[in-house]
Predict the 3D structure of the following.
Amino acid sequence: MIFMPFFPTLPLISGSKPATRARKISTIRIFFSYLSQKANLIESNPAQNLETPKLDKRLPKYLSLDDSKKLLNVTEKDENDENKERDFAIITLFLNCGLRLSELVGINLQDIDFNEYKMNVIGKGNKERTIYLNKACIDAIKEYIKVRPTEGLKNDSKASNKALFLSKRRERISNRTVQYIVEKELRKAGLDTSKYSTHKLRHTAATLMYQYGQVDIRALQELLGHKSISTTEIYTHVSNEQVRNAVESNPLSDFNS
Protein backbone atom coordinates (compact mmCIF):
# COMPACT_ATOMS: atom_id res chain seq x y z
CA MET A 1 0.00 0.00 0.00
CA ILE A 2 1.41 3.35 -1.03
CA PHE A 3 1.12 6.15 1.51
CA MET A 4 -0.35 9.23 -0.18
CA PRO A 5 0.67 12.40 1.63
CA PHE A 6 -1.57 15.41 1.77
CA PHE A 7 -1.30 18.86 3.31
CA PRO A 8 -4.29 19.50 5.61
CA THR A 9 -2.67 22.67 6.96
CA LEU A 10 -2.15 24.39 3.61
CA PRO A 11 -5.49 26.28 3.71
CA LEU A 12 -4.46 27.61 7.12
CA ILE A 13 -1.04 28.58 5.82
CA SER A 14 -2.38 30.63 2.93
CA GLY A 15 -4.15 33.10 5.21
CA SER A 16 -1.28 33.52 7.65
CA LYS A 17 1.42 36.16 7.94
CA PRO A 18 4.74 35.44 6.16
CA ALA A 19 6.55 34.56 9.39
CA THR A 20 3.75 32.19 10.40
CA ARG A 21 3.69 30.58 6.95
CA ALA A 22 7.45 30.09 7.02
CA ARG A 23 7.25 28.41 10.42
CA LYS A 24 4.41 26.10 9.35
CA ILE A 25 6.13 25.16 6.10
CA SER A 26 9.28 24.32 8.01
CA THR A 27 7.25 22.09 10.34
CA ILE A 28 5.70 20.27 7.37
CA ARG A 29 9.12 19.71 5.79
CA ILE A 30 10.46 18.24 9.03
CA PHE A 31 7.40 16.00 9.43
CA PHE A 32 7.65 14.52 5.94
CA SER A 33 11.41 14.25 6.24
CA TYR A 34 10.85 12.02 9.25
CA LEU A 35 8.30 9.91 7.37
CA SER A 36 10.68 9.41 4.45
CA GLN A 37 14.09 9.13 6.10
CA LYS A 38 13.41 7.76 9.57
CA ALA A 39 10.10 5.90 9.49
CA ASN A 40 10.46 4.80 5.83
CA LEU A 41 6.72 5.19 5.29
CA ILE A 42 7.13 7.16 2.06
CA GLU A 43 9.80 7.11 -0.63
CA SER A 44 10.56 10.83 -0.73
CA ASN A 45 9.75 14.11 0.98
CA PRO A 46 6.87 15.73 -0.99
CA ALA A 47 7.27 18.96 0.97
CA GLN A 48 10.91 19.44 0.07
CA ASN A 49 10.16 21.94 -2.71
CA LEU A 50 7.55 23.97 -0.86
CA GLU A 51 8.51 27.63 -1.21
CA THR A 52 9.22 29.59 1.94
CA PRO A 53 7.79 33.14 1.84
CA LYS A 54 10.23 36.00 1.87
CA LEU A 55 10.32 37.62 5.28
CA ASP A 56 10.39 41.38 5.58
CA LYS A 57 13.18 42.70 7.77
CA ARG A 58 11.57 45.06 10.25
CA LEU A 59 13.64 47.67 12.00
CA PRO A 60 13.16 47.55 15.77
CA LYS A 61 11.14 50.27 17.44
CA TYR A 62 13.12 52.19 20.04
CA LEU A 63 13.11 55.39 22.05
CA SER A 64 15.22 58.31 20.93
CA LEU A 65 17.95 59.55 23.27
CA ASP A 66 15.78 62.51 24.29
CA ASP A 67 12.75 60.30 24.97
CA SER A 68 14.93 57.92 27.00
CA LYS A 69 16.12 60.79 29.17
CA LYS A 70 12.55 62.02 29.55
CA LEU A 71 11.44 58.56 30.71
CA LEU A 72 14.23 58.41 33.30
CA ASN A 73 13.47 61.92 34.54
CA VAL A 74 9.76 61.38 35.13
CA THR A 75 10.45 58.08 36.90
CA GLU A 76 13.15 59.46 39.18
CA LYS A 77 11.37 62.67 40.16
CA ASP A 78 7.85 61.43 40.86
CA GLU A 79 7.55 62.22 44.56
CA ASN A 80 4.01 60.80 44.64
CA ASP A 81 5.21 57.29 43.79
CA GLU A 82 6.17 55.31 46.87
CA ASN A 83 8.05 52.84 44.66
CA LYS A 84 9.98 55.42 42.65
CA GLU A 85 13.43 54.07 43.68
CA ARG A 86 12.49 50.57 42.59
CA ASP A 87 10.85 51.69 39.37
CA PHE A 88 13.72 54.02 38.52
CA ALA A 89 16.22 51.19 39.01
CA ILE A 90 14.14 48.94 36.72
CA ILE A 91 13.94 51.54 33.95
CA THR A 92 17.64 52.33 34.35
CA LEU A 93 18.68 48.69 33.96
CA PHE A 94 16.48 48.20 30.92
CA LEU A 95 17.80 51.30 29.15
CA ASN A 96 21.46 50.78 30.06
CA CYS A 97 21.91 47.02 29.90
CA GLY A 98 19.37 45.81 27.33
CA LEU A 99 18.04 43.12 29.65
CA ARG A 100 15.21 40.77 28.73
CA LEU A 101 12.16 40.96 30.97
CA SER A 102 12.77 37.49 32.43
CA GLU A 103 16.41 38.37 33.10
CA LEU A 104 15.50 41.45 35.11
CA VAL A 105 12.84 39.63 37.14
CA GLY A 106 15.30 36.85 37.92
CA ILE A 107 18.04 39.06 39.39
CA ASN A 108 19.05 38.13 42.95
CA LEU A 109 20.95 40.34 45.37
CA GLN A 110 23.86 37.91 45.36
CA ASP A 111 24.15 38.24 41.57
CA ILE A 112 25.44 41.80 41.88
CA ASP A 113 29.11 42.57 42.48
CA PHE A 114 29.24 46.20 43.58
CA ASN A 115 33.03 46.23 43.74
CA GLU A 116 33.50 45.01 40.18
CA TYR A 117 30.43 46.84 38.79
CA LYS A 118 28.92 43.71 37.28
CA MET A 119 26.13 41.17 37.73
CA ASN A 120 25.19 37.73 36.46
CA VAL A 121 21.88 37.07 34.73
CA ILE A 122 20.21 33.91 33.44
CA GLY A 123 19.23 34.30 29.79
CA LYS A 124 17.57 32.10 27.18
CA GLY A 125 18.32 28.42 27.41
CA ASN A 126 19.19 28.87 31.10
CA LYS A 127 22.56 30.29 30.03
CA GLU A 128 24.33 32.54 32.50
CA ARG A 129 26.23 35.62 31.35
CA THR A 130 27.90 38.62 32.91
CA ILE A 131 26.50 42.12 32.52
CA TYR A 132 28.83 45.00 33.32
CA LEU A 133 27.14 47.89 35.08
CA ASN A 134 27.85 51.58 34.63
CA LYS A 135 27.67 54.17 37.41
CA ALA A 136 24.03 55.02 36.65
CA CYS A 137 23.01 51.40 37.22
CA ILE A 138 25.05 50.97 40.41
CA ASP A 139 23.71 54.22 41.87
CA ALA A 140 20.09 53.37 41.01
CA ILE A 141 20.38 49.89 42.54
CA LYS A 142 22.00 51.24 45.70
CA GLU A 143 19.27 53.85 46.16
CA TYR A 144 16.62 51.17 45.79
CA ILE A 145 18.34 48.79 48.22
CA LYS A 146 18.19 51.54 50.87
CA VAL A 147 14.37 51.32 50.83
CA ARG A 148 13.95 47.70 49.76
CA PRO A 149 11.89 45.75 52.33
CA THR A 150 13.96 43.44 54.52
CA GLU A 151 11.27 41.97 56.78
CA GLY A 152 8.33 39.72 56.03
CA LEU A 153 9.87 38.43 52.81
CA LYS A 154 8.50 35.16 51.46
CA ASN A 155 10.89 32.21 51.35
CA ASP A 156 9.01 30.50 48.53
CA SER A 157 9.75 28.56 45.35
CA LYS A 158 10.58 31.85 43.62
CA ALA A 159 13.24 32.63 46.25
CA SER A 160 11.55 35.96 46.91
CA ASN A 161 13.74 36.59 49.95
CA LYS A 162 16.78 36.63 47.63
CA ALA A 163 15.21 38.68 44.82
CA LEU A 164 16.48 42.16 44.02
CA PHE A 165 13.12 43.54 42.93
CA LEU A 166 10.11 42.96 45.17
CA SER A 167 6.40 43.65 44.75
CA LYS A 168 4.11 45.27 47.31
CA ARG A 169 3.39 41.78 48.58
CA ARG A 170 7.09 41.44 49.44
CA GLU A 171 7.71 38.66 46.94
CA ARG A 172 9.74 38.49 43.75
CA ILE A 173 8.26 40.91 41.27
CA SER A 174 6.37 39.30 38.39
CA ASN A 175 6.75 39.82 34.65
CA ARG A 176 3.32 41.40 34.48
CA THR A 177 4.07 43.85 37.30
CA VAL A 178 7.24 44.99 35.55
CA GLN A 179 5.27 45.42 32.31
CA TYR A 180 2.72 47.51 34.21
CA ILE A 181 5.48 49.67 35.72
CA VAL A 182 7.00 50.32 32.30
CA GLU A 183 3.59 51.15 30.81
CA LYS A 184 2.87 53.52 33.70
CA GLU A 185 6.17 55.37 33.35
CA LEU A 186 5.89 55.58 29.57
CA ARG A 187 2.45 57.10 29.97
CA LYS A 188 3.74 59.63 32.50
CA ALA A 189 6.46 60.61 30.03
CA GLY A 190 3.85 61.18 27.33
CA LEU A 191 5.11 58.25 25.22
CA ASP A 192 2.96 55.87 23.20
CA THR A 193 2.31 52.72 25.28
CA SER A 194 0.95 50.90 22.23
CA LYS A 195 4.27 51.44 20.47
CA TYR A 196 6.75 50.85 23.31
CA SER A 197 7.16 48.08 25.87
CA THR A 198 9.75 46.37 28.05
CA HIS A 199 11.22 44.67 24.99
CA LYS A 200 11.37 47.99 23.15
CA LEU A 201 13.50 49.32 26.03
CA ARG A 202 15.91 46.45 25.28
CA HIS A 203 15.94 47.59 21.64
CA THR A 204 16.56 51.14 22.83
CA ALA A 205 19.58 50.18 24.92
CA ALA A 206 21.15 48.23 22.05
CA THR A 207 20.47 50.98 19.52
CA LEU A 208 21.84 53.79 21.69
CA MET A 209 24.99 51.82 22.50
CA TYR A 210 25.60 51.08 18.84
CA GLN A 211 24.83 54.57 17.58
CA TYR A 212 26.45 56.68 20.29
CA GLY A 213 28.92 54.36 21.96
CA GLN A 214 30.57 52.94 18.83
CA VAL A 215 30.17 49.49 20.38
CA ASP A 216 31.64 46.60 18.40
CA ILE A 217 28.90 44.35 17.06
CA ARG A 218 30.48 41.28 18.69
CA ALA A 219 30.56 43.03 22.08
CA LEU A 220 26.92 43.98 21.61
CA GLN A 221 26.07 40.37 20.79
CA GLU A 222 27.72 39.23 24.01
CA LEU A 223 25.97 41.90 26.07
CA LEU A 224 22.52 41.06 24.71
CA GLY A 225 23.03 37.32 24.93
CA HIS A 226 22.29 36.66 21.26
CA LYS A 227 23.18 33.19 20.03
CA SER A 228 23.60 34.38 16.45
CA ILE A 229 25.35 37.53 15.26
CA SER A 230 22.64 37.91 12.62
CA THR A 231 20.16 38.73 15.40
CA THR A 232 22.39 41.53 16.63
CA GLU A 233 22.94 42.92 13.14
CA ILE A 234 19.42 44.36 13.11
CA TYR A 235 20.84 47.28 15.11
CA THR A 236 23.42 47.99 12.41
CA HIS A 237 20.52 48.18 9.94
CA VAL A 238 19.01 50.92 12.09
CA SER A 239 22.18 52.91 11.74
CA ASN A 240 22.35 52.34 7.99
CA GLU A 241 18.77 53.55 7.63
CA GLN A 242 19.66 56.74 9.48
CA VAL A 243 22.63 57.29 7.19
CA ARG A 244 20.30 56.95 4.21
CA ASN A 245 17.89 59.46 5.73
CA ALA A 246 20.75 61.86 6.38
CA VAL A 247 21.72 61.80 2.70
CA GLU A 248 18.13 62.30 1.62
CA SER A 249 17.78 65.31 3.92
CA ASN A 250 20.72 67.08 2.29
CA PRO A 251 19.38 70.40 0.83
CA LEU A 252 21.10 69.52 -2.44
CA SER A 253 19.24 66.22 -2.80
CA ASP A 254 16.66 67.68 -5.20
CA PHE A 255 19.11 69.80 -7.20
CA ASN A 256 18.95 69.19 -10.95
CA SER A 257 21.60 70.65 -13.22
About this structure: DSSP finds eleven helices and three strands in the chain. The chain has a mean pLDDT of 86. Residues 65-244 form a domain with the hpI Integrase; Chain A fold (CATH 1.10.443.10).
